[in-house]
Design goal:
Elements (H helix, E strand, L loop, with lengths): L1 H7 L8 H16 L3 E5 L6 H4 L1 E6 L13 E6 L1 H11 L15 E4 L10 H10 L1 E4 L15 H11 L11 H12 L5 E6 L3 E8 L4 E2 L9 E16 L13 E3 L7 H13 L9 E6 L6 H5 L20 E2 L6 E2 L5 E5 L13 H4 L16 E2 L2 E2 H15 L17 H19 L4 H8 L4 E6 L9 E6 L2 E2 L5 E2 L4 H7 L2 H8 L3
Helix pairs in contact: 6-7, 11-13, 13-15
């Protein structure tokens, strides 16, 4: 509910089964739009998983597969990716750009690894076009070149002294894609290496060639630039795979995220200050199970509201592996969940504690009803009152144990497979205390005599899971009524072994 409220500005859903279903539907929709992401911390979770680390890859810096072996390359973690997405789409409006019938092309404007090629990108941005390099001495703008076959034939005629290139050879394939496949209105995405992209444009003019002193990058299509970020944004924002470093190719698979592309275009056209800011949420489950200081590293300071992007005291850091500048956008919210019964809250890093608000999420028995005569609200309330008396309030069990139980059999299973094992852990196998919580309807015992003939008798405890009159198995029919009717004095008596 909190994640939905942060994204939508409200989460006014009735506390009914239909209301919860509607809430979950909206939550899942936001997850699908990648405005909400979820991650679980654990003892081995680290900075490299959360922010940035080196990962083995079989791709080279040019984006193409290595002939053998692997190399280590920087890869963004979920926090970095989510931050980049929130920043890129902060002002994106819903609806907007129509992609019906449009093709999408990835293009490289110069080699990113070669600083001498930087001018090619800037030239294209300033001039409003995309361009390709070696034209093979051909003027591909001639009207005859309308198919790849005709282009191959024309090249062969013009270069009779050299072998005819393979149809997929770049000398033919790249001009073909720019000249024939790409149409006015199609979308061009400009990559920055194989992990980043830095511009999105719409083709506005037909193919043409220009005269240049070095006869390089003569092949052009005019473009209206819709979105630009020279630093580059992670490919994950718009595409589920890394980019290939092929100079130009057409996206053909379903991993292209059209909603995100539409959002970036809307952001680029509307500007960062127009319209409502889209909110994004990262949910960290079991936030206290990892070494939080190690996971966040130097980014802990950047979590503070006044240190976020665009704020008065905004800060950025240089990421250790990619050497990219990074800051946390103001429209990214972090929700951390933790079970204080698993680990004391005092063990959370103090530096992190003062950067978060803490809100107790107490059990809500009111969300439970009556299932085949079992009053789950009363059952949970009674169990938690006794747990709080015997241990503390932090160990109360949640209503989630019984959410979704629609039959008595499901309630029995939840008690046997979830509640009782948890109580075993709470009380360190002290069955007298378990019996004090649940009563004799769930827990029984028999007396064990000393086998040596001398010494004290002992109690052997067991769970009253038995065959019922209708042939099914479960707890005795009166187990729940006995739990609810037991008086406080009886509870203490059971605790003391009476």
């Amino acid at each position: 509910m909190e994640a939905v409220a942060l994204c939508d500005g409200t989460a006014d859903y009735p506390e009914t089964k239909k209301g919860r279903a509607a809430l979950m539907a909206r939550y899942n929709e936001l997850v699908g739009l990648e405005r909400v992401s979820f991650v679980t911390f654990h003892q081995n979770y680290g900075y490299e998983d959360f922010v940035e680390g080196l990962r083995p890859t079989t791709y080279g810096e040019d984006g193409e597969p290595l002939e053998s072996g692997f190399r280590l390359a920087p890869e963004a973690g979920i926090f970095t990716k989510m931050s980049e997405r929130a920043e890129a789409l902060r002002s994106a409006r819903d609806g907007g750009h129509d992609f019906t019938g449009k093709r999408f092309f990835k293009m490289s404007l110069g080699e990113v690894a070669n600083p001498e090629d930087d001018y090619l990108f800037e030239e294209a941005i300033e001039g409003g076009f995309v361009h390709l390099g070696d034209d093979g001495g051909m003027d591909w703008s001639e009207p005859i070149f309308t198919t790849k076959e005709l282009m191959i034939a024309g090249y062969a005629e013009h270069h009779a002294d050299i072998p005819v290139p393979h149809p997929n050879n770049g000398i033919i394939e790249f001009p073909f894609r720019l000249r024939v496949r790409a149409r006015v209105g199609d979308i061009v995405i400009v990559s920055k290496g194989n992990l980043l992209f830095r511009a999105i444009g719409e083709i506005t003019g037909e193919y043409h060639q220009v005269k240049r002193e070095n006869d390089e990058y003569t092949m052009r299509r005019t473009v209206k630039w819709l979105w630009i970020d020279r630093d580059g944004v992670s490919h994950d924002v718009i595409y589920g795979k890394r980019f290939s470093q092929r100079t130009i190719y057409e996206f053909t698979d379903s991993e292209l995220k059209l909603d995100a592309i539409r959002g970036l275009i809307e952001t680029g056209q509307g500007g960062p200050d127009e319209g409502p800011t889209k909110q994004f949420v990262l949910i960290i489950d079991e936030i206290n199970r990892a070494n939080v200081s190690k996971v966040f590293g130097e980014l802990i300071t950047l979590l503070e509201p006044d240190k976020r992007t665009g704020m008065d005291n905004a800060l950025s850091v240089t990421l250790p592996y990619s050497k990219r500048q990074f800051s946390v956008p103001a429209n990214l919210h972090i929700i951390g969940t933790m079970n204080t019964a698993d680990r004391s809250i005092a063990l959370l890093d103090t530096a992190l504690r003062r950067r978060f608000n803490f809100r107790e999420m107490a059990p809500e028995p009111d969300l439970l009803g009556v299932v085949e005569g079992i009053d789950l609200k009363a059952v949970l309330t009674t169990i938690n009152q006794r747990i709080e008396y015997l241990i503390d309030r932090e160990h109360r069990i949640g209503h989630a144990f019984f959410i979704g139980c629609e039959t008595a059999e499901q309630v029995h299973d939840a008690m046997r497979d979830k509640v009782i094992p948890l109580l075993q852990e709470y009380f360190f196998e002290d069955w007298s205390r378990i019996a004090a919580v649940l009563g004799s309807g769930f827990i029984g015992h028999q007396t064990l005599k000393c086998p040596m003939g001398e010494g004290n008798d002992r109690k052997s405890w067991f769970v009253r899971w038995e065959k019922q009159t209708d042939g099914s198995t479960g707890f005795p029919a009166d187990a729940y009524s006995r739990l609810l009717s037991k008086s406080p004095s009886e509870v203490m008596e059971a605790e003391n072994g009476g």
